[in-house]
Sequence to fold (204 residues):
Amino acid sequence: MRREGYAHRPIKTGADAVSDVRFEPDSEFLMETDDFLNAIHKAYGFQVTRRTLQLYSSPQQKLLPPPIYVGGHRSYYLNPEHTQRLAAILYLSTRLFMPLKAIRKLLRVYPERHYGLLLKGVLTPQELTDFTELFGRGLEVRDFLFHKVSRVLKALDEDHGDERMQDEATKDKALFAMTRQFEKWMDTGRHHKVEAILKHEAAE
Fold:
């Protein structure tokens, strides 16, 4: 990644990158190695060593692009490119327990613009595996998520019998009805109450 186009970015320390103000994951800047590792820890909660960083960037693993070089031999890591990708790798490895080979295969096809969505944990390991296998057939990440939402809404529909006995028009009609119920639920503001309760439980 020796590209002159990145040299104009400001250089920040880990403390500058993740200050008391809200971290802006899409802002563009450069960090030296120690500051990069510090920012990963503060912004995403992952601790990673230089050795692991070198492993991920090695020709054998090819999980993380190597740093860029500015002003001679001094190397820098890019935000958001390196930061979000390393956070995604660490999330998949430590939270979903995916092997590095599977992570490498997934990140070859998973859109970089959706790394933030990946870190929110809305896709299961199996769904990510399915995405890897089906990518290239006209499906996008949003298709997977909307399909997941539609499955949940269908499961909530207790007024209809076995879905296998229904034609597509009947299934769609039931799904639209559940979608309207979901809209009404959102209008009541109950989703804020549920979110607050879940956050409180998670903090205890």
In short: The mean pLDDT is 84. The longest helix spans residues 168-188. The longest strand covers residues 75-79.
